[in-house]
User: Which sequence fits this backbone?
C-alpha cells in the first residue's frame, strides 16, 4: 500500500530542511497576527463564544498538515462558512444555546465525514455542481447578509432577522436605540481598517518599510484596532459597550456532540452544503497557489485534508473550517513552503489562547464587527453580474436567482435554488441542440450549414448534422425534428445523419434512433449515419439495431451520400 | 391569429368526406367493443366506481378531436395512469371514499391544466427528463404491481398493501379465505383471454374470417368473457362472488372538486407525474402511427389535445386519461382516418351507458381483473433489461433502480428516483469527458489520440483534445487535468487545446479557462486554442478574456501548433 496516497505530508516531510523551517516560521508569525482577530470575529459571526474560533484555529491546521496536498493552504474559520453554520445551527436549535453549540460542532464533524467519504470514493466531482455563477452569487449575497448583520453590532443594537430585508427592517426600527459610544468605537475601527486596506501598504512603504517588516506591519492593522479599542473601553469604563468578556484560558477538551440520530439527519443537508462550498473555495485557492510554484494539488487529497481538518476541529470543540482565500494568499506571500507553517501557526494560536485571552475581556464586539465587514465586502465580485449579463443570459439568471433567494430566504435555500436552476438550464440546453441541414461546399469534401454557406444539395437525399451528444434529454426532440424535416421535404428518399459532433448515444437515444429508422422506413425513407466516432460505433455494435443499420453507416459524409444515392438509383 | 395553431381539427375537418366517415364509423365500432370492458376494469383499478370509467371515455374523446394533432389516437382510461391515480388519491384521502373520488377528479383537472400550460409555453421538452430506461422500468414495475393487486380480486380476497411485497404477504396470509366460485370464474376468464390473445387470430382465420370481421371477432373476446361470466353468476346465483352491482344509467353531470387550495397543492406532484407519463406514451404512439401514413404530429399540439381531454374528463366527473398504445393501434388498424372516429366511439360509449349498464349488475370483479392482468402483462418489455445491461450499465442501473423503488416504495417514488438518478448520471458523465493527448499522423494534417495511433509529437508543445462541451460540471475537472498534464511533462512550454468537439463554453468554463491560462502562465506555459467553432468563438468574443487569448486562437490545429512553435523559437 502506498502511504502517499493517504498522507499528503509524505510528499514533503522527508525532505524537510532548515531553509523551509525558517520560511515557515516567518509565515506563521504573519498568519498568527492576522488570525487572532479573525478567529474571534468569525466565531461571533457563527453565533458562538469567541474562544471557539481559537479552538477551530489549532487542531485543524495540524490535521491538514498531515493529510492535505496544498503547500501554502491556511485552513481555519472563514466568513461564509461561519454564516452558513450559524444559519443551520440557529434553525435547528430554535434559541437553545447549548443545542446551538452542539449543532455547530456536529456540522463540522459531519461535513468532515462527508468530505472524507467523497475523497475515498474519489467523487470530488459532485462539487462541480456548484457552478461559477452560483458560487459567485452565493458569496456576494452572503457577504451582504453578513455585513448587514454586523451593522447591528457596530451600532450597539441587536438586529437579527430571518432574512436580509427583515434584518434591515429591524435595524431601521431600532435606529433610536443606537449606543453612541459603541458606534464611535465601531465606526473608528471600520474607517481605520478600510484606510489601512486602501492606503496602508503605500504609507508603510513611504516610511521605508519593505519585505517581511512591511508585511507584518500591514497585517497588524486589525491588531492595532483591537488594542486601541480595548484601551478605549478600559479607560472610558464604557459599560454600555458590549465586549467579548471573560475568555477561558484553558485548552479545549475532547468533545463529541450528544445528539440523537434524527438530529444528525436534520443537519445533514446544511453540513454537506457547508462542506462543498468550503471545498470549492479550498481547491480554487490551492490550484492558484500551486501553479505559482509549478506545483500541483490533488483535489481528492484536498477532500481528505479538509475533511480531516473539520473532524479535528469538532473533536476539540471547534466548528466548520475551510481553506480561506485571503489568509492562504498571505501565508504564501509570507513565504510558507509547507503545511509546517500551519503547525507553527497553531502553536501561535495556542500561546494566544493561554496568555493573551485575559487581555481581551474588554474587546468590543463592534471592533470585531468592523473587521468582519471589511473582510466580507472584499469578497464581493462587483464586476461579475455585468460580465455574466454580457457573456451568457442563462448564467446571469443563475447568478441573479442565487443572490435573490439568499437575500429573501437564506443561504441554504439560495444555494439549492441556484444549483437546481443550473442543472435544469443545462438540461434544457442539451434538450434542444443546434441542428443544421448541410450541403457540400462546391469543389471540396466539406459539408456546411445550408443557411450559412452556398452549398450543393442532392435531390432526394437530406443531410442533417446535430451538434450535441444524443442523450435522453434530446432523444425525443430528435424524433420530432427528423420526422418533421422528412415530412417537410416531399421528394425525400434518404436521410443522412452526420455524427461528427456526437460523443455519446445513450439507451434512450438508441431507442429513438431505432424508432426514427422505423418511422422513416414507413415513409419510404432510408436512414444513413456518417462519421460515427470510434467509441460511439463500438457501443452501437452492442445493440440489436446494429445489425439493421450497420450497412448504412459510412466513413466520411461524402462516401455515405454516394452510398445513399447508389441505393436509390 | 392562426386558428390552426390552437385547434388540431382545423387540419382535417374542412376536408372531411364520406369516405373518411365510413372508415371512422367502422373503427369506432371496433374500439367501442374493446373500450367497454376496459373502461369498467380500469376504473376499478383506479379505485373508482365502474361508471367513472365510462364517463372518462366520452368527453375526453370529443375534446381530443378538437385540439389533438394525431389522426388515429384513442384517448381514455389506461392501466398505468389508473394505478398512479389510485396511489395518489389513496395517499391523499386516507380511506375517505368521497375525498378519494374528489382527489381522482382533481388529478385529471390539474394534470390537464399542466399539459395545456406546457403546450402554451411550448415546453414539452420537460417530458424528455423521463428517459427510456426510466419509463420502461416504471411501466414494467407498475404492471407487476397492478397484476399482483388484481390477483386478490381474481381469487375473491381483499389484498391491498402499500407496496408490492406487502401486498404479496397479505395475499399469502389470506390464502385460506379464497372464494372458489370467484376463482373458478376469474381463472377461466384469464385462460380464455390469454388463449384468445395467443391463438385467437389464427383460429378465427382458419374459420375463414378476414378483414374487419376478423378484427371485430378478435376484439370481442373480452366481451364474450364478460357475457359468459355474467350468465354464470346469474344462473348459479353465486352470492359470494363480488360483482359490479348497480351502475347508474344517467349521464354524468357537470362536476368540480370542492377541495381547499392546500389539497390541490398536495396533489400537484402526482398530477404532474401522471400527466407527463401519459404525454410520453401519447407522443410515442402518435409518432409511430403518423409515420405509417407519412403524416406527422406536433408534440406541443398533443400537449393541448391531451390537456383538453383531461379537463373534459374532469368536468364530467371522470379521471385521468391518456392516449393508450394498444387501443390507438386497434383504432388505426381498423381504419380510423381522423379523430372523428373518437367522436363516434364516444357515441358508442354513451349508448352503452344508457342501455347496457343494467345488464352489467352481475358482472364479477374477477372477470375484469382477468382483463386487466392480461392487458398489463403485455406492457412488460421482458427483453429490455438484457438489452440495457449489454448496451450501457448506466442505463441499466437507471432501469433497475426505478423498478426496485416502484416495487418497494410505490409508483411516485420510483419515477422520481429514476429521473434523479438519470440526471445525476448524465452530469457525472459530462463531468469527466473523454480527453486525449493528440499528435500528428505523419504525412497528413490529421491529429489523433497518441494512445490509439502512431503519431508525431512536438517537443515542448502538448496538444490536448476534449470530446465534450465545456460546462460547469466539467469546468474544474478541466483545470485539474490540464494542470496535471502540464506539470507531468516538465519540458512543456505551450499547450494547445483542440476545440473541435466543443459546442458550448458556459461562464463557469470560461472562468476555468481564464484560470488555466493564468496558472499555466505562472508555470511559463502558453495556452493556445485551435479549431474553435464559429458560435463558440462568437461567444468568447463577448468576454474580457478574449482580448488576452485572441491572438492565441488558430484556425486549424496544424496552424496553431506552428504558431506556438514560432512563439517559442
Assistant:
Amino acid at each position: 500500500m502506498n502511504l502517499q496516497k493517504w498522507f499528503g505530508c509524505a510528499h514533503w516531510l522527508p525532505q524537510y530542511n532548515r531553509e523551509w523551517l525558517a520560511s515557515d516560521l516567518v509565515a506563521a508569525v504573519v498568519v498568527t497576527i492576522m488570525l487572532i482577530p479573525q478567529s474571534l470575529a468569525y466565531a461571533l459571526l457563527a453565533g458562538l463564544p469567541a474562544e471557539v474560533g481559537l479552538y477551530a484555529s489549532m487542531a485543524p491546521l495540524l490535521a491538514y498538515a498531515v493529510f492535505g496536498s496544498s503547500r501554502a493552504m491556511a485552513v481555519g474559520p472563514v466568513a461564509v462558512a461561519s454564516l452558513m453554520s450559524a444559519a443551520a445551527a440557529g434553525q435547528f436549535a430554535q434559541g437553545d444555546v447549548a443545542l446551538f453549540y452542539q449543532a455547530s460542532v456536529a456540522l463540522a464533524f459531519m461535513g468532515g465525514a462527508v468530505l472524507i467519504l467523497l475523497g475515498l470514493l474519489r467523487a470530488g466531482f459532485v462539487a462541480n455542481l456548484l457552478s461559477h455563477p452560483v458560487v459567485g452569487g452565493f458569496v456576494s449575497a452572503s457577504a451582504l447578509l453578513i455585513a448587514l448583520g454586523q451593522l447591528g453590532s457596530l451600532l450597539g443594537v441587536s438586529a437579527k432577522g430571518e432574512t436580509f430585508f427583515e434584518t434591515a427592517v429591524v435595524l431601521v426600527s431600532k435606529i433610536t436605540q443606537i449606543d453612541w459610544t459603541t458606534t464611535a468605537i465601531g465606526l473608528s475601527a471600520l474607517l481605520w481598517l478600510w484606510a489601512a486596506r486602501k492606503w496602508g501598504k503605500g504609507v508603510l512603504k513611504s516610511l521605508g518599510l519593505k519585505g517581511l517588516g512591511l508585511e507584518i506591519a500591514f497585517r497588524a492593522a486589525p491588531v492595532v484596532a483591537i488594542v486601541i479599542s480595548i484601551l478605549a473601553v478600559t479607560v472610558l469604563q464604557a459599560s454600555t459597550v458590549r465586549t467579548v468578556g471573560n475568555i477561558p484560558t484553558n485548552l479545549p477538551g475532547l468533545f463529541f456532540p450528544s445528539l440523537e440520530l434524527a438530529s444528525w439527519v436534520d443537519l445533514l443537508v446544511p453540513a454537506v452544503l457547508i462542506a462543498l462550498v468550503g471545498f470549492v473555495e479550498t481547491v480554487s485557492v490551492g490550484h492558484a497557489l500551486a501553479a505559482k510554484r509549478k506545483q500541483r494539488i490533488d483535489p481528492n487529497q484536498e477532500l481528505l485534508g479538509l475533511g480531516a481538518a473539520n473532524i479535528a476541529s469538532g473533536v476539540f470543540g471547534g466548528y466548520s473550517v475551510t481553506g480561506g482565500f485571503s489568509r492562504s494568499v498571505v501565508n504564501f506571500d509570507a513565504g510558507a513552503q509547507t503545511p509546517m507553517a500551519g503547525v507553527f501557526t497553531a502553536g501561535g494560536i495556542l500561546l494566544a489562547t493561554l496568555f493573551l485571552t485575559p487581555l481581551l475581556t474588554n474587546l468590543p464586539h463592534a471592533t470585531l464587527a468592523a473587521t468582519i465587514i471589511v473582510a466580507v465586502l472584499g469578497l464581493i465580485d462587483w464586476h461579475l453580474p455585468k460580465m455574466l449579463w454580457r457573456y451568457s443570459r442563462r448564467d446571469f439568471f443563475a447568478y441573479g436567482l442565487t443572490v435573490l433567494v439568499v437575500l429573501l430566504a437564506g443561504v441554504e435555500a439560495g444555494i439549492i435554488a441556484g444549483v437546481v436552476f443550473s442543472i435544469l438550464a443545462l438540461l434544457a440546453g442539451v434538450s434542444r441542440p443546434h441542428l443544421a441541414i448541410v450541403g457540400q461546399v462546391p469543389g471540396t469534401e466539406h459539408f456546411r450549414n445550408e443557411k450559412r454557406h452556398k452549398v450543393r444539395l442532392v435531390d432526394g437525399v437530406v443531410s442533417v448534422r446535430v451538434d450535441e451528444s444524443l442523450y435522453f434529454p434530446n432523444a425525443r426532440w430528435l424524433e420530432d425534428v427528423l420526422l418533421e424535416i422528412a415530412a417537410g421535404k416531399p421528394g425525400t428518399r434518404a436521410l443522412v445523419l452526420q455524427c461528427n459532433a456526437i460523443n455519446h448515444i445513450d439507451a434512450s437515444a438508441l431507442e429513438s434512433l431505432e424508432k426514427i429508422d422505423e418511422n422513416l422506413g414507413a415513409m419510404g425513407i432510408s436512414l444513413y449515419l456518417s462519421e460515427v466516432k470510434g467509441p460511439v460505433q463500438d457501443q452501437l455494435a452492442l445493440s440489436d439495431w446494429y445489425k439493421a443499420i450497420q450497412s448504412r453507416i459510412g466513413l466520411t459524409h461524402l462516401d455515405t451520400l454516394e452510398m445513399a444515392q447508389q441505393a436509390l438509383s
Observations:
- The mean pLDDT of chain B is 89.
- The longest strand of chain B covers residues 435-440.
